[in-house]
Automatic annotation (TrEMBL):
PROSITE patterns given in the database record: PROKAR_LIPOPROTEIN
Sorted UniProt keywords: Signal
Official protein name in the record: ABC transporter substrate-binding protein
Pfam families reported in the protein's UniProt record: Peripla_BP_6 (PF13458)
Composition skew (Polar residues), residue ranges: 38-57
Boundaries of every Leucine-binding protein domain copy: 48-409
InterPro entries, per database record: BCAA_transport, Leu-bd, Peripla_BP_I
Top-level division of the source organism's lineage: Archaea
Keyword Signal attributed: yes
Region feature (Disordered): 36-64
Taxonomic path: Archaea, Methanobacteriati, Methanobacteriota, Stenosarchaea group, Halobacteria
Length: 442
């Protein structure tokens, strides 16, 4: 898979037997279920294989979940019909005729941003060996539940829009893979870029959502900022309830400390609401940073996102051959008339799209859907998804890749993007002998 774009519902069979049969000459029918949980499933047959998306389609993270679903569905379309990064300079092993000669079908479930809902949706499907892989998820409690289910049922899980350190650290799994960078890598890419762009920064304040993912980001940013030689020191932090619409108290506390930088360790609609209020409460000199920005934030704020710094999962202006190829494919699929409608391909969509293709190519190389065989093909593999050369690191199943650092602008670029790409920082991942990877035992 080496490429470089720089230039039962019935009785339980064993998972290994089912997937070996799917990848070989035998035929095993996978009975699909439609439960009362609101999930939708297309039933598998001996000519098909089913993959799953477990993503927030309702709740505070639903805009991100919508983007994950678009990327997932586009990947399946290309696997079955060709197009995008399938074949050619992208994933040459993929033919556009399914995977291992089987049509790829889908099971999609709404997590509602809730771990117990995610578990209810997935448990029987995984227990009945319906899914050859699954992806998606945003909330930290959800993605850790996904991890536990992947481990329990020996099913490949490709993490959704989550930078949670523990997934490629102390809570890693031989069946979990992540394309998106982790929080420590994010901090090492983002903080120096922000400091270099704003002269005289000295003090920062953090507003953190009271969630696993919020606390994880806060620790990573604080640890890097205080351990580096940057002229940057923490002056305070405050925690807010996820789902809150009132950030006045937290932002007023930041403002009263006369800070240079305010990190809003928030996601989804929380980030949108906090940015709007921060623009009114903070001084004009204060710099706002949202560590992980998504296109849904600029979709909601438009030019009001001006001056906000952060990272994104992907940016079309990374300017690699496959970057343009994915961007064109996404826009052609979803934006209607391209001459009159600009649609920015969002990071969560590109992430989910790429991971589905990465799994499919590994299955083709292995000649089976068996999780252990797929793992052997994925560990150490070099590939490209539109952000330059990448490697799926064997020690922790964390992708080594570029981290796009952006700043919001008042005007849009040629594709309607309000995020100006400042840098696609590379080689900033902590090594296998450093946290979080050093705590990972696969």
């Amino acid at each position: 898979m080496t490429t470089d774009d720089r230039g039962g519902c019935g009785s339980r069979a064993t998972r290994r037997r089912v997937l070996e049969s799917l990848g070989g000459t035998g035929a095993v029918a996978l009975a699909g279920c439609l439960g009362s949980d609101g999930a939708t499933t297309e039933t598998s047959t001996d000519d098909s294989v089913t993959i799953g998306l477990s993503s927030p389609e309702s709740g505070r993270y639903s805009p991100i979940g919508d983007h994950e679903r678009r990327g997932f569905e586009l990947a399946v379309t290309h696997l079955n019909e060709g197009g995008g990064l399938v074949g050619g300079d992208g994933f040459a092993r993929l033919s556009g005729d399914g995977v291992l000669g089987r049509t790829v079908e889908t099971a999609v479930a709404d997590t509602e941003g809730d771990a117990s809902t995610a578990e209810t949706n997935l448990q029987q499907r995984l227990g009945d060996d319906e899914l050859a892989m699954f992806t998606g998820g945003v909330a930290g409690s959800v993605v850790t539940t996904h991890r536990d289910l992947a481990d329990e049922h020996e099913t490949p899980y490709f993490v959704g829009t989550s930078t949670l350190n523990q997934l490629t650290g102390e809570n890693c799994s031989p069946h979990v893979y992540r394309e998106l960078f982790n929080s420590r890598t994010l901090a090492r890419a983002l903080v120096p870029e922000v400091v270099s762009d704003i002269d005289g920064a000295q003090f920062f304040f953090q507003v953190t959502t009271d969630t696993i993912e919020g606390r994880d980001l806060k620790r990573s940013i604080n640890r890097y900022a205080t351990a580096s030689d940057l002229d940057l020191r923490p002056i305070g932090t405050t925690t807010v309830r996820s789902g809150s619409t009132d950030f006045e108290r937290a932002l007023s506390e930041a403002s009263s400390n006369s800070v240079d930088i305010v990190f809003l360790d928030l996601f989804g609609l929380d980030a949108v609401n906090a940015i709007q209020q921060a623009k009114e409460i903070l001084s004009e000199d204060a710099v706002i940073v949202v560590p992980l920005l998504t296109q849904s934030v600029s979709d909601s704020l438009g030019e009001r996102v001006e001056g906000v710094y952060g990272t994104v999962g992907w940016h079309e202006n990374l300017d690699t051959p496959l970057s343009s190829k994915f961007g064109d494919a996404y826009q052609n699929e979803y934006s209607g008339t391209m001459s009159t409608t600009a649609l920015v391909p969002p990071g969560p969509a590109q992430n989910t799209y790429g991971q589905v293709l990465l799994w499919a190519s590994a299955a083709e190389a292995a000649g089976t859907f068996d999780a252990d065989a797929v793992r052997s093909e994925l560990e150490g593999v070099e590939y490209a998804l539109g952000a330059g050369s990448e490697t799926m690191r064997a020690c922790d199943h964390q992708a080594m890749r570029a981290v796009p650092v952006v700043r919001g602008s008042t005007g849009t670029d040629s594709v309607g993007n309000y995020f100006e790409l400042l840098n696609g920082r590379r080689n900033v991942e902590p090594g296998c002998d450093e946290p979080p990877a050093s705590a990972c035992e696969l």
